[in-house]
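The pair is listed for reference:
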Amino acid sequence: MPFAPVVGVDNYGKTVLFGAALLKDEKEDTFRWLFRAFLRSTGGLHPETIITDQDVAMRNAIRAVMLHSTHRFCNWHIQRKMKQKLVTFFAARGTLHAELRSLIRNSFTPEEFESGWHALLEKHDAQDETHLKRLFEIRDEWVPAYYMDKFFPFTSSTGRSESTNSLFKGYVLRKDSIATFFNQYQIVQEKKHSDLDRLREKSELREQRYWSYDPMEREAAKIYTPPIYAKFVEEMKKTTAYRVEVVAAAGETRTFLVTRRGKYQDAEFSKRIYTVSISPDDVYRCSCSKFSRDGMHCCHVLAVARHIGLSSLPESFINPRWTVAAGHVLAMMTDGNVGQNGQRTHLTVRHSIVMSQVSDALSNECTDDRSYDLFVEGIGEAINKVRLDKRLRQEQQLSGGKRRCIDDPQQLNVDARQEGDGDLHIPTQVHQNIVSTIGASSMGGVEVHQTFGLRDPPLSRTKGFKLGDRPKTMYEKASDKLKKQKAARKCSKCRLPGHKKPQCPQNNPVMLKFSGLAVLIL
């Protein structure tokens, strides 16, 4: 049976297993059933982008069911097949293959790719090659230049799906029963959840180390998850290889020319010159379109930001998907209410910024008991004021009357008691945990809380001896070993005595076929 994992990416950049399907075949109707079942599980929420291998039946099913998704073929698979089928053809034409790969990777626009493709084929007399003609006809389904404005974070292949297939091969055998498959599936999911929990715990407890003294880096460390922050630091390092020149400083849009001064390792593109523009509403755009593709600005934009003296991250720099706050508001982002996604995205960005500001204030300002008490007292007053303002706006909408002033301290105290929660009392002891509702959001009926104060210490990895235990002698160890050897043999499949694996009643002749079918990125 074909095995189809449906995977995506979380805010740590790690692979998430949304689900899996065992299909009867790989026909278009079967894939339509699969994608409809997936949409039912998401409450009708379509994935933003989809990557699959070059399968016509799957492509037609996606076009029929996933009407609001952008679908593309795996770039890596197409180029591998091209090399395998035309190995003799390329060997007779020198650098044609290397030049085609460079063109595919470094083209920023469809026009640039198409003109370069025709020029290369004419240069090497390859216009009549059948496979290259076929690839050019479907160029808008796999060439990266046609997807520069689409969100395919840090990938253009089905590598995550292939790694998931490889993971399951270590847990499920081809002749295993359906019941065994479901049990092993639960184990795989639990393993992924535990890996994510360990990653979160590690990121919370580790001491942050900075690469530079740039304030933008320190702000990014508080907003982004550690793996995404590491990518941000790599982009900052690359800024040292570029020179920035002002092209147009007057008018509504400012334009800069970013030129690479020397080569460096792991360069995403081989081009030397890039164009960065800044719109009146403080939105930065680069000719490489990295923010649209990966949700993170490139080194070219960061070089311009450093050139103009930017000391903090603008709101337009932050993609909520990669923030620590995204894990807190995950339930709100997936509750099925599609109409409010834009508003939620905006509020998630503001939530990340406020969390960063509060963290800075606690670290830099609250250095003694008096400062701490004043800070907590201010939090309580701010919460009361926000609650009162919300209630007054609701009353105004119902009655059409005039809004009352919310700056009266007596009115604040009276109305705060009328909110239903009584007086807002926050303990001010320094060593007591404080739960602040700063940045709390009630979207989707979910409140987000940020806890300040002391955390539980990390658990020791060594178990040690239990109370009353003692190290065993060599005689006791040998005796225990003999007891284990005398134990009755058990079936290696069901772990029950009395039979072996070939005679196990759980055996089922169902065959599982592993094939990477789809990568869905929500």
Observations:
- The longest strand covers residues 2-9.
- The two ends are 26 Å apart (CA to CA).
- The mean pLDDT is 78.
- The CA atoms of residues 104 and 245 lie 28 Å apart.
